[in-house]
Each structure stands twice: as structure tokens, then as C-alpha cells.
Fold:
Amino acid sequence: MSRRPRYYGLMAEFDNPTAIVAATRRAYAEGYRQMDTYTPFPVEGLAEELRFHHTRVPLIVLIGGLIGCFGGFFLQLWLAGPYWPLNIGGRPLNSWPAFIPVTFELTVLCAAIAALIGMLALNGLPKPYHPVFNVPRFALASQDRFFLCIEASDPRFDRARTRDFLESLSPREVSDVES
Amino acid sequence: MIEARELYIAPAAASRVERRALIVGVIGLILVAVGAIFRPAQFLQSYLFAYQFALGLALGSMAILMLQYLTSGDWGVVIRRTLEAAMRTLPWLAIGFLPIIAGVRELYVWARPAEAAAEGLEFREGYLNVPFFIARAIIYFAVWLAIAWRLDRWSREQDRGAALGWLKRLRRLSGPGLVIYGVTVTFAAFDWLMSLNPEWFSTIFGFLIIAGQALSATSLMILVAALLSRREPMAGVFQPRHFHDFGKVMLTFVILWAYMSFSQLLIIWAGDLPQEIPFYLPRMQSSWRWIGVALIALHFGLPFALLLSRNLKRRARSLAALAGLVLVMRVIDLFWLVAPEFRRQGLSVDWFDPVTVIGVCGVWLALFIRELKSRPMLPLRDPHLIDALSAGEQYSVNRRE
Structure:
């Protein structure tokens, strides 16, 4: 039995940033939500038209930072106190001012690692395969073309009608994206 | 814009606040002045830190004024008149220094020759002696007043619109001006606060005071901006993005203050030398330590954590509440720098302390509002004013509101 080819969505190609911002605004007004844009450089205003939302990365960074902060401080406190008591110039075993620099560095380190890993995880990276690359002209997204892709998972997606809609935005080309 | 000049005068409510502040301040000062007849030493201790707080508001405002000329952000244009008004109180503060000169022998151990000799301080006499102390104070005030006069004068010329290029002059003054500010405030902090304990020294102390002054002035300007933004003519001027910038400036100085404070402690803790630790001994081993804990929690911890929030920074009301807390903590920080030198046995608060603070701050506030009212609330001929007032989020790509 041969499976029907599944569609990832429809992709429209534009040749300037103004056009893609306008097209994205129209698509959003039309009710499309499951869509994304691909551009060779960050286009101002595009994220707003896509209603790009808050992510959970800040929370992950905060948790990573707190782990580093408390982990770093109590590691030193435990080492210098219960585990291997060392008298350093008569200072108390809980020589907390001396612990702060390491605590601070570990806070920054763990927060930075959490930011990197959290960003990769939430983005689903690394991702060796993505359907948009099935469109041959998509390579131009890293040169001088701007792509708007409406995904088939969108409830309003309909192959014929969505194609008509995209054509009405006067793109250079509309292509099917197979998955 | 120029026709609208008449519209940008201070709201009528400012005069009411000015009058009340003056009444409260004068009553406070009369009370402590009467008290000073009986207990001059106690009055001078309280006056010293209250005065340092008011001086910090004026000098910090001057520093931030120069900073905003150098960096030229939109936030600096909308708040410039507040900073200038605070800076123009400097001549009054120069007069306010007279009680400290009068009481120098009461305040400072090194100024009492017999005691200084007993404590082995003779070799510091070359620097720490009364005539030189007074001469240095005169130099500091002369330098500050000269910078303030120039900054104010050129800004006024710009208002008149007689010629262009004032901004360039102001900018050219601000670079060297900030360096001179840093040097003079460092020495002034050594003279007026650090020498309370003449054996003790900390090279970071000057920057600790500078960070504190900048934080005081930032908190003041946030409070003033939040109050002004509630009524005409400034109601439409301050936007969330301006408060966002104010909040970022405040966060910077909160961190800077904490960094300076902690660096001083860490270096002295690591060295553990007899001539360095006397500053911390009463402050860490007696009940004064609770003030230290409060400073860590409320002067650094809470403001730092809250100022990370983007929403809090963009809301005038919540940012102003935090600025109010920080101003209170600034007073307590200066109290903590001064009072333990005289009350080494433990934490104690005399009625002179709060009443002197209220008196000095009340009178200062009245002088400040008087200056604020004397000019339009916006630099109406500043070339960057249009940008500063425009509604767009020019620099923020992810607008999320």
C-alpha cells in the first residue's frame, strides 16, 4: 500500500521585506495561525505580525541560575565546614564573604548553560530534517528571498483555498511543501 | 512646540508640596537646632549623614545629567529639568556645610590634637588637619559649583534659542566633568565620612559613595517623573519606554552599589589586617549587623530581583514605589556609615536621627521644587526632543504589548 503524500504546507516566495511583512499581516487577518516566515536577515516588525510570544527560556535560565547559586554556596559551605574543616587565618568556618565570588561565577555559568540548553530544547534543535528544505528554491532564504509558509496543521488550512489566498498576495511563486 | 512653552510649567500641586515640605523641614530643623544647644555632638552625627544624603541627591543628579549628555538617550531628555533642578540646589548645600565646619572638632577624632596624639595619629596630620580640611571643602564646592553653573548656563542658552551648538558644548564639558566629579567626590568621601575612623582606609570607599549618590539621584528622578506623569502638562510625555529606561539605569546603580560594597568587604575580609578591620568590627559583631542584613536584603536583594522584571520597570507606579524604598535605604546606608563610629557598643537610634533627616530633606525638597518650577519642564529647543517624545518603540524589535 502506498501512503498518500502528506503535506507540510504551502510556501509563498517574496522578494522584499516589506512584502513579507504585509503578507504576514494579511495571513494573520485571514485567520491563519500555524505559519512561519524565513528571511535572510531579521526583518523589523515581522515578529510582531506573527504574534511571536513569550517563551519559557527566562524561567529555565532563572532555575539554572538558582541551582548554580545555591549549589555553589553550599558546596563551599559543606566542604569548609562539615566535610573538611580548615582553619584559615582564624576566620569562621562559614567564611561567607570568601564564598561569594565562586557562588556568583557558578550562578552565571549554570544560568548560561541553562539558557543554551533551554533554547535548543524549546526550538527542537538539533533537527537534522525539516520539510521546508524540500522546496528547491528555499535555499534562497539565506540569500535574497523571503518565504511565508502556512502549515497544513492550521485548522483553516485548505490546499486549494490557501493556495488561492497566497496567490492573491502576488508572490513570485507558491510551492507545495511535502513532508 | 515653541508656542507650547507656556504649557510646560510645573503643575500647581508642586507649589503645595513645596510649601508643606518647607513647613515640615523648618519645624524639624528648629527642633534639632534647639536640641543642638544641649547635645551638639548628637546633632552633628545626625546632621552629617542627613546632609550627606541631600548632597548625594544634588551631586548624583549632576553626574547623571553629564552622563545623559554623553550617552544621549531619550530618557535623559525628558528628565533633564529634574536633574538640573536638583543640581541647582548645590549653592544651598554649600551653605549647609557650615555646621560641619563649625563642629569639626566635635565630629572628627583627628581634629582634637590631644586625642589624636594619644591614638598615634600624628603622622596623618599633614593631611588630616582642620585648616587643610576646610580648604579642601572649599575646593570641592568651588569645582562642583563651577561645573553646575556651566551646565545650567548653557542649557538656559539653548532654551533661548539664540544659537545652535549648545549641546555640543555641554557634551564636551560632560566628559571631563564626570572625571572631575569622580575625583572630587572620592576625596570628599575620604574627608567627610572615611576620616570618622582616621586609622581605617579603603580605596574603594569613594566609588561606594559615588554609586550611592547616583542611585539616590536615579530614585529621585523616577519618583518625580512618576508624580509628574499623573497630571498636566507632563501626563502625555512620560511613556512606558521612558520608565523602562529609568528602571534599567536604577538596576545598574543598584548592582554597582552592591559590587562596591561587597568588594570592600571581601578585600578587607581576605586581608584581615588590624588597620583595615576596625570599620567592620562594630558593624558585624554588634547589633549593627542587623542594619547590614537589612541593607543586603532591601538595598540590594529586593530591588535587584524586582528590577529584573520588564513589566515592573514599565509601570510608573510600581517603579516609583521601589524608588521610594531605595531612597529610604540610602538614608539607612549613610546612617550605617556614620553612626556606628560613635555608638560602637551596638545599634541605637536617637530622636535626633529621624528628625534631622526630615528637617534636612524637607528643606531640600522645598528648594528643589522651587528650582523645578522656575523653568519649563522640558528642554523645548533640544534637537532630540521630538525623538524623545515620539510614541514609537524605536529600539525594541519585539514589542510585546
User: Anything to note?
Assistant: Residues 9-113+124-373 of chain B form one domain. The interface with chain A takes residues 262, 265-266, 269-270, 272, 397-400 of chain B (CB under 8 Å). The two ends of chain B are 29 Å apart (CA to CA).
